[in-house]
């Protein structure tokens, strides 16, 4: 009897996460997918983008052997909306996710939204998600109910629960209490009551999670998932698929935004199997300026106009530094090596592009903001979006609202202002702009000097922008849109032992508890 063909797989890596989608590429020629989404990573955090960055040699090697996209954007400038757009190909004003979910959220990504994992699983893929989720963890909003066969990770951000070894905040948050609430000192920007949990599917395997070993665990689980999906065709020569962890900059530890892929030393047989694997890396939004030297690098996209008035021009904002993120694709034999693309692309495009590459169909009865950008991927074209919308993400205007956009080289703002805190604590004034601010990014990557409204260039481009903006809003208004449930209930907080302070698991003292230990006690996330 012949050896059964492995089914295709897809792995999604969300902010320190890996998600995998694996398909039977031998028979169906469907590619395998590895999608890595890095949390709070600046455009300049990739050495291939910014010469000052020296911490990403393996990613730089992937960029050299694949294609780098330098005009690539997140679909929002904060966590939950960006992830929702990756999994749906739709902006928050369509899929309902306009701001972040809380640890006590009852809802999540609306259940009537079809995820990328659901489409690919229907097409025969094994699907896995590893890392930060942040799209709802209660009930049917858990990743296992949203198309993922396997999940290993934290249900929301690292800073949304205490740990025993915090170290990435400024100043560091206090560690979890062990014997009583009095052991901790409350601070406004630190979660103080419930420890950060680590989940394997619906089971809490560690609470609080040990951050120091989390990157290694993510790597190990990603490799295990692929090995299982390949049905006895192990990738043992691959020491790791991705590693996200700490490094020191200026004497300070950084936990977010830096990934490295170890050198792949593989046999010819494994190399042939990887020929059918598509790997992509992108950021979920720009760096968190409030974290000062612990934040990532913006590169040239400093949002000088906003900085001159106070406030951040990075995460949570619609300035380039908030949503222009590093991106690369590595696919030996399919994606050109050593190429740099200037096509205007977005995280929104991952959904329709992977669906097309898998030979599947887009979900009906809804409109998509993402495009199938296969021509740009394969080097046949360098054309992407004609218009790209940038939703409000907390710094100005109604969250999720569309008050900034890009048309060709022109960046347009109808609203700027307060909400995103800079390193110095400033926020800047809230301002409405009518007529809008317009920057020509071909001449002004720093977004320092808007066009003079009386100039010939401004007067020529304003009518085109106004028409494009009106048409985009009309398209959204005519669409089948969803509404997310943002209600909260303390009962929705993941807790493996309500009898212990901070929901601490028995015996879970940092790295002493290994989630792969056979004798561990399963603790359900209820």
Automatic annotation (TrEMBL):
SUPFAM superfamilies assigned to the protein according to its UniProt record, in alphabetical order: Alkaline phosphatase-like (SSF53649)
Protein's name in the database: ARSG Arylsulfatase
InterPro entries attached to this UniProt entry: Alkaline_phosphatase_core_sf, Sulfatase, Sulfatase_CS, Sulfatase_N
Name of the gene this protein is made from: Arsg
GO molecular function: arylsulfatase activity; metal ion binding
PANTHER family, A to Z: ARYLSULFATASE FAMILY MEMBER, ARYLSULFATASE G
Keywords of this entry: Calcium, Hydrolase, Metal-binding, Signal
KW Transit peptide (keyword) present: no
Any Pfam family matching the protein: Sulfatase
Cofactor(s) recorded in Swiss-Prot or TrEMBL: Ca(2+)
The Sulfatase N-terminal domain, residue ranges: 31-202, 277-360
Organism of origin: Poecile atricapillus
Top-level taxon: Eukaryota
Similarity annotation: Belongs to the sulfatase family.
Residues making up the signal peptide according to the UniProt record: 1-28
